[in-house]
Amino acid sequence: MRTNNNKKGSKTVDPIKSKREIQAVKNYLSGKNLRDCTLFIVGINSALRVSDILKLKWRDVFYETGEIKKEIRLIEKKTNKQKGFPINKSMQKSLLQYFECVNQPDNNEYIFKSRQGCNSPLSTKMAWKHGVPIETLMKILNHSSQSVTKRYIGVWPHSHQAKDFQ
């Protein structure tokens, strides 16, 4: 993952193009936080917007019998269109590992839930505040620069909120 400075001085991040780069990000995140690593793996394998990933519940991934589903089906928040995508081996391994780590939660719980409040989804702003790298959110959101992502999640460069996240 390379960062470049454009003419306006804001950073842009080149897309991850190789399996080696993807594996490097996975290795980095798995050593830091299993939730963030799982979020990244679901993001790169599903091509979902982060707002849709954060709304996923365990019932979207597992049948009531406890067996993992072959695909996830949902209604996209932005387009209101139905989308389905397969749960590949990488997603399956990460989701199962994370499921075990969070002590086999109820099917109605959000997969990436906030640590504040009971069973509410993690927001993009809170994902960043709790350590999900801005570059990861940029990739998931398909943004071209950190400033675009910060604006999207509601953190403005000169606000008191922005200082909390630097």
Kindly describe this structure.
With 166 residues, the chain is mainly alpha-helical. It has a single domain, classed as hpI Integrase, Chain A. It is built from eight helices and four strands, in the order ββαααββααααα. Strands 1-2 form a two-stranded antiparallel ribbon. Strands 3-4 form a two-stranded antiparallel ribbon. Helix 2 runs antiparallel to helix 4. The longest helix has 14 residues. The two termini are 20 Å apart. The C terminus is likely disordered. InterPro entries: DNA_brk_join_enz, Integrase-like_cat_sf, Integrase_catalytic, Tyrosine_recombinase_XerCD. Pfam families: Phage_integrase.
Q: Span from first to last CA?
A: 20 Å
Q: How many beta-strand segments?
A: 4
Helix content: 40-55%
Order of helices and strands: EEHHHEEHHHHH
Name the CATH class.
Answer: Mainly Alpha
Element layout with pairings:
Elements: E1 3-5, E2 11-13, H1 19-32, H2 34-46, H3 50-53, E3 71-75, E4 82-86, H4 89-101, H5 124-129, H6 134-141, H7 146-153, H8 160-164
Antiparallel strand pairs: 1-2, 3-4
In short:
Residues 11-166 form the Tyr recombinase domain. The chain is mainly alpha-helical and 166 residues long.
Give keywords.
single chain; 166 residues; mainly alpha; hpI Integrase, Chain A; two-stranded antiparallel ribbon; two-stranded antiparallel sheet; 4 strands; globular; disordered C terminus; Integrase_catalytic; Tyrosine_recombinase_XerCD; Integrase-like_cat_sf; DNA recombination; Phage integrase family protein
